[in-house]
Every structure is written in C-alpha cells, then in structure tokens.
Amino acid sequence: MPPSEGTPRTLHDGTPVTLVHVVRHGEVHNPERVLYGRLPGYHLSDLGRRMAQATAKHLADRDVRRVVSSPLERARETAEPIAGAHGLEVDVDERFVESGNAFEGERVDRRMLADPRHWPLYVNPFRPSWGEPYAEIATRMRAGLDALRQQVKGYEGVVVSHQLPIWTLRRAVQGERLWHHPRRRRCSLASVTTVLFHGPLPVRVMYAEPAGHLLDAAVDVTGEAGEVTR
Which spans are transmembrane here (predicted)? Predict the structure, then answer.
C-alpha cells in the first residue's frame, strides 16, 4: 500500500525508497507494417488504447507523483490515461525516445533483410551497426531514469518509452551485457518494468503485463530490423 498523503517511503535509516515504473506503449495502428522508429504520425490503434487503459488501471492505486513520456505520439497517448488517473499532466523527456534505426520507414519483411543494399548494416550486431549503439541508449535512458527518481524521491514515477530502450535500460540496471537477441526481450506491449531504488541504488527489477489478456490480438512491429511478432 502507498504511504499516506505527503509521507515519503524510507528505510529505517531515512534512506528514501522510490519506485519508477517504465511502461512500453500500446499497439500502434500500422497496417503497412512499416518500421516506424522515430517517424511522426504513428498513433495507438483502438486495441492500443485499450492496452493503455489496462495499464492505467494497473497503476491507478500507486503513489505516482510524475508521469514522463517519450515525445513520440504512441508513447504520449499511452501516458495520458496513466497521468489522468492521478490528476497529473504528461511531461516529455527526449531521453526516453525510440532508438535510432537505419531501416526506419521501410516495410518489415524478409525482402528487407535480403536486400544487398542493407548488408553493410549487418556487419556488427553487437553495437549494433544498423542503429543507435546500445551503450548510447543505456546512457540516455539511465540518465532519464535517475533524474525522475530524484524528482519523485520516496514516492513513485512513471516513464512511457519503447521496447528496445526499455530492455537496454533493464540490462544496464542489472549489470548485464547490452547486446541481446531481440526475441528474448521480456517487454510486451503496454508492459510495466518497475525499478525499486533504495536511495540512488537500484535493488530490484519487477515486471508485469497488465494488458496481457489483449496481446493475442496484437501485431507488434519492433524497433529491431526484421523483427515482427504477434
């Protein structure tokens, strides 16, 4: 249960206990299956809005003091019902934007991967060579996370971002190597990855899928080249 109004959580020695919930946006209306990346104009589908509402309900009883979003439409639209449940506005932070990707704007299918024009982009999957380096994603995401932690010290905050940045952040917080196989990410649409802090130290990462009952009907085109999952 959250503490009473105005009372921050602390350990017995006064160390603040803070929770930051990192939410992935809901399903996007994308009938052409374009890898949209940072392109503007991609909004939540009707199903995606239902996902956002499910996540807002999941977080409604939490002691949330600030809601921050990536600047992209799909993230802001996911953040709005979460913020509304707490009487808050959505603040935008560029550090939580989708990762950069050289395939942005292309239709995601096997032909994209087989096109010889793209082969130089596959040279180094550990960096990766087709987009924003994992190390840079981790740095900006961790900076944004720490800033929000300080702003809601002793309470809870919410961030709405994107699959690859969230998964990279999680691996960075847990001290794991940043390179990974895209199919092994545990970060479904409208999921909540929660980081528990004691002071500035992350001590636990938790995960929930409030919209899990809606996932079977969703089509998920991720930020990774050629990765399409249902």
Answer: none
The residues facing 207 across adjacent strands are: 193
Query: Domain coordinates of the chain in residue numbers?
Result: 17-31+44-100+134-215
Q: Please name the residues in contact with 114: beta carbons below 8 A apart, sequence gap of 6 or more.
A: none
Active site residue 25: yes
Element (H, E) at 137: helix 134-151
Catalytic choice (25, 58, 77, 80): 25
Q: Which of 27, 73, 98, 156 is an active site residue? A: 98
Q: Which fold has domain 17-31+44-100+134-215?
A: Rossmann fold (3.40.50)
Q: Are 34 and 107 in contact (CB under 8 A)?
A: yes
pLDDT in tens, 116-168: 665 565 656 667 756 899 999 999 999 999 999 999 999 999 999 999 999 99
Residues 172, 158: Cα–Cα separation, whole Å: 18
| Inter-residue contact 9 to 18 (CB < 8 Å) | yes
H helices present in 22-121, as ranges:
46-59, 73-84, 110-114
Indicate whether this model's pTM tops 0.85.
yes
